[in-house]
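Here is one chain, start to finish.
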Amino acid sequence: MTQPASAAPAITLAPSAAARVAAIAAKQAKPAILRLAVEGGGCSGFQYRFGLADSIEADDTVVETDGVQLAVDAMSLDLVAGAAVEYVESLGGAAFRVTNPNAASGCGCGASFSV
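Its structure:
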């Protein structure tokens, strides 16, 4: 389901993340669609899973930034509503990072969270 123009986006894809997804998708000759899913596990209870998707599913919420789509399934969206996905490069490495207002706590690595 695509977001209506007047509604606040359910989730945001930062330009830094969109640029990185576009580069990876081009190298792999895949569509520029990043899928974010939330799974049980990780050191805090839930963990983020990222991957390139071949297509959009019927229950996905989709946001687009600079021609790159971010797809989130309905179940995961409940846990990441209002979040922002960025691509961050630092001395510790480079990674996609989710700033999630629903997370009550997170772990040191930033890959898992609890609600």
